[in-house]
Amino acid sequence: MIRAYKFLMRPTARQSVALGEMLRDHCSLYNGALEERRDAYRHPSKTSIRYGQQSAQLKDIRAFDPERQGRWSFSSQQATLRRLDKAFVAFFRRVTVGQTPGYPRFRGVSWFDTVEFPKEGDGVRWDSTPHDRVTRVRFQGIGHVKVNQHRPVAGKVKTVSVKREGRKWFVVLTAEQDQPERLPATGSMVGIDLGIANFLADSGGGFVPNPRHARKAAVKLQAAQQALSRFPRRKVKNRTANHQRAVEKVASLHGKVRRQRFDHAHKTALHLVREHDFIAHEDLKIRNMSKAPAPRPDPEVPGSFLPNGAAAKAGLNRSIADAGWGVFLAILNAKAESAGREVMAVDPRNTSRRCPACGHTAKENRPTQAKFHCTACGHTAHADTVGALNVLRAGLVRRNADTA
Question: pLDDT per residue over 208-228, tens digit each?
Fold first, then answer.
């Protein structure tokens, strides 16, 4: 299996400048390749340019501009061209299936924050043997950079990436390793129901509170964004020091919320994986759940629209995004695979309206957001706990059907 590791780097001031130049030059290569593809398609001949053709030009590009393109790893530049090629493949796939295409865009220097090295040892070398208790990674054109390695890397390092987040630099490793030892069996099975009022309810009657990190930081974020809005729009090279500080303040607050959300998701998923052998959850279509409502044209007044609940839906969408269900489910599946646990996604329809005692399903069974009261047998419980019970039962039914 493949596992990723992310470590904070401690570059010197000169190395930080060199890392920024590396991102800038790869961004220039990406934009140049995108412009070439766009111009070729706009030509009357409608020529299509592929990755292989652009990769073959790299040798001439490096020879023509040795100061900017020739100093960096050849394989990392190929990875940047593959990144553009993947963007076009995804664009044409969306066109084929009738989705919003989203044509690949030119990247600004502040938007391009990752460079990938597809093979360790080719342009980059991970030094797994610490020197003076300090781990280092060596990049072509930059040198040895100190790394804050907070845990050991298991397996053989396959790829290495450099990532910039604000003023911080990170190295991301992917390592191929054998299947880890499974955790001891507990004999426990659980169903979970994700929500807004509570982040998670389980079939055993337990609840995990929703931390609402973004809502708690809303006041500080609003003040920082208002301070940023006072500056006129400028080109990056013409930004003043105050403007740059305002940008970094907003980015820092958003980064803190993101880290808090990830930390909560990791801890919650780890607890579930350690305590249960089988975990069932709802197969949520989060993108569809957070869509804005369609406008309602007024048939009596052309050009005007009727109320469609957009303001209330916007508040719900913010709460869904703040909960981070997608991030949590991705982390849960990764931890379960590593620990040898089984995770099953089930259809969420009617899970909170079906009585776990008699099986009666009706909208009236849930008179309020939190209360469940069966109109057939009188069973009463918390609605989220009922949903988790039904999720667990549906997961067991699906597992038995798959093994049959």
Answer: 999 999 999 999 999 999 999
Torsion region of 114: left, alpha or beta (phi above 0 gives left; psi -120 to 50 gives alpha): beta
pLDDT digits (tens, 9 = 90+) for 63-76: 999 999 999 999 99
Handedness of CA 89, 91, 92, 97 (dihedral sign): positive
Q: Which pTM was predicted?
A: 0.84
Q: How many CA atoms lie within 13 A of 26 on its CB side?
A: 30
Predicted confidence at residue 303, as pLDDT, reads 86
The list of the chain residues with pLDDT below 50 reads none
Token representation of residue 247: 């940008």
Those residues whose C-beta lies under 8 Å from the C-beta of residue 320, and which sit 6 or more positions away, are 196, 286, 289, 290
Task: Please check whether residue 280 is in contact with residue 188, taking contact to mean a CB–CB distance below 8 angstroms.
Answer: no
State the CB neighbour count (10 A cutoff) for residue 267. 11
- Residue 124 makes CB contacts below 8 A (sequence gap 6+) with 73, 76, 117, 137, 138, 139, 140, 160
Where does residue 7 fall: left (phi above 0), alpha (psi -120 to 50 degrees), or beta otherwise? beta
| Six token digits for residue 79 | 């990875």
Calpha distance 230→378 (Å, rounded): 59
Q: Radius of gyration of the chain from Cα atoms?
A: 26
Helix (H, G, I), strand (E, B) or coil at 262: helix
